[in-house]
């Protein structure tokens, strides 16, 4: 389904192959070319449209949920979700396999709440049966936090089997779906999920400035007075919005306007299914093109998300990532450095205003760049291949 119709954002402006902020449509940028009064009825209508637009993506049972937008980047929303839904005497099990899971655990510690971490390292998925085992052995755990797509490696975590284990054990599920919501199906009612978070500048393809908590309305109602923080209190934000239609503190007005245009474009593309199909096509085109050059992915195909892909750096000593990065930027593509602890790697995002034609141009630029560096094969070193073989047994 490649359309190859996505032009460079502006002449000379690079494509962002990063997991947000990402390359946005000209229409999304154009939506920000005026000012709105935060208190005015026009902006209150925009806030209502934002909330209902997000709720329209939730699938069956979505009417039991509400959407609470909050100022800040995604991490602010993760912290708000934990502080608002985890009771002060609760205990959170964080399922970590990368930087975002570890960050959520650190946020929980800073808030002063009890936390246990299942740390699976760089890329192993937390599986349902180990979650069930931990919950059976630790009755103090009240909530479990799962990362939908762990953007550090690009792994798509098995949220459905995790959710089943959490529900079976009678605990509550929180999800960080920051980099997945809007492109991968997430039906919170089917998962019996209490709350999840995402942000404006990922798969909906808006610009940075706010995120949103989606939570069961009864859980929002019951969460008063729990938050550790005035500004990161999702209950208070929700209660004020329900009462006045306004955000409690200065809203990112232009970002909200951009987001409404982004939501319209998301619907026009066929919603979650359409967006997910384009990103999948991006990933498949990218991975095939990079493998043809000798590159290999960290993860076996089974765990690859259509969000971002981690590639090993080539073994050839003539390969130098800072040089590769700069040369790719000169050709109009901003890559993303790797985050693995064991071997050198880099990442290429598949999300944003990009299509398969852009991905073919990326791999062509990589081919030219390697040739310019004198690298004849992009094959990874033995240590990376050993790592990959381990990943294949998961
Ligand atoms: C982007 C992202 C976040 C939030 O990161 P910010 O830099 O605060 O926007 C959290 N979790 C995941 C999985 C993400 O991809």
| Biggest sheet descriptor | 7 strands, mixed
- Tally of discrete structural domains: 2
Q: What is the fold named in CATH at topology level of the largest domain?
A: Aspartate Aminotransferase, domain 2
Number of helices: 14
> What is the CATH architecture term of the largest domain?
3-Layer(aba) Sandwich
- Specify the CATH class of the largest domain: Alpha Beta
Strand content: 15-25%
The radius of gyration computed from the alpha-carbon positions, rounded to a whole number of angstroms, is: 21 Å
Which structural class is indicated by helix and strand composition?
alpha/beta
Determine the CATH superfamily of the largest domain: Type I PLP-dependent aspartate aminotransferase-like (Major domain)
Helix content: 40-55%
Overall pLDDT metric = 96
- SS elements, strand count: 14
Bound molecules: pyridoxal-5'-phosphate
Can you offer a commentary on this structure?
It contains 14 helices and 14 strands. The chain has 394 residues and is of the alpha/beta class. The protein has two domains: 3-22 and 271-393, Aspartate Aminotransferase, domain 1 (Alpha-Beta Complex), CATH 3.90.1150.10; 34-267, 3-Layer(aba) Sandwich (Aspartate Aminotransferase, domain 2). The strands form four sheets. A seven-stranded mixed β-sheet has the order 2-10-9-8-5-3-4, with helices on both faces. Strand 13 and strand 14 form a beta hairpin. Helix 5 runs parallel beside helix 6 and helix 11 packs parallel to helix 13. The longest helix is centred in the last third of the chain and has 22 residues, at 271-292. The protein is globular, with a radius of gyration of 21 Å. The mean pLDDT is 96. It binds pyridoxal-5'-phosphate (PLP).
